[in-house]
């Protein structure tokens, strides 16, 4: 056993200096841990949404916030499948959608063109017919494009007993279908004029876009008795800064570059549920971007011809 003595740790009596060093180290560790806990408590976000606050509600933009891409484009795909319009119109919609997905921001001319096309397409059709078709199109093209992260945010408000509204420039009939399928309270959207249940091809007022969204939220809040300082709003687009600025809890979701900068300046909360994100998107060379758009458009046309 003596031969194994070198394996046995030697016991040494602690000197006064070593005791002091040990006590000082333990005290420093305890103090550091306590300070870390206090910092964590101080910087933690308060519970939100507030459970049972019936004067609070949440307002969600639709395109690229709740759903990938533009609802109007997906609706157009469904109408094309049902022979509401021709291949050249689908090609134009495909170009606009591809541009939107690459740039991550709405182009006003594209949006106006899409709305004008949609109005001309539905003119003369019954509202009830489009509502029924909208249910089918949701299942075909939209259900799989809902962002799970944004859906969870909306559910948190519902679980807290609050109302949740979609606010979108898309036709109100489409928005209402999506809101109903997601279990939300309702939707604010662009209203197309109808007489005796038939679309006239005109709008009531203007598209619900930009400042118009803010006015719609303000009017709904007044009618519902909501306190906007306790409400939340979610959007991806700088066009919705007027709506986001109305509420006490603005969120930038999958934000475009302008909204991201504004959100950081205003210390708004940001959430990004995209994969690959803008870094890759912005880094795409112009030629590659155009090629991707052209390829997507050609593929859409080819697919439509095969289905004939």
Helix and strand arrangement:
Elements: H1 16-43, E1 57-60, H2 71-81, H3 87-103, H4 108-122, H5 127-142, H6 148-159, E2 163-171, H7 172-181, E3 186-190, E4 192-195, E5 198-203, H8 211-224, E6 232-235, H9 241-246, E7 249-253, H10 257-266, E8 269-271, H11 277-282, H12 286-307
Parallel strand pairs: 1-2, 1-6, 2-3, 6-7, 7-8
Antiparallel strand pairs: 4-5
Helix pairs in contact: 2-3, 2-5, 3-12, 5-7
How would you describe what is shown here?
The protein is an alpha/beta fold. The chain has 12 helices and 8 strands. The protein has a 6-stranded parallel beta sheet with strand order 3-2-1-6-7-8, sandwiched between helices. Strands 4-5 form a two-stranded antiparallel ribbon. α2 runs antiparallel to α3 (87-103), α3 (87-103) runs antiparallel to α12 (286-307) and α5 (127-142) packs across α7 (172-181). The longest helix has 28 residues, at 16-43. It is elongated, with a radius of gyration of 28 Å. The model is unreliable at 1-10, 38-44, 99-104 and 277-308 (pLDDT under 50).
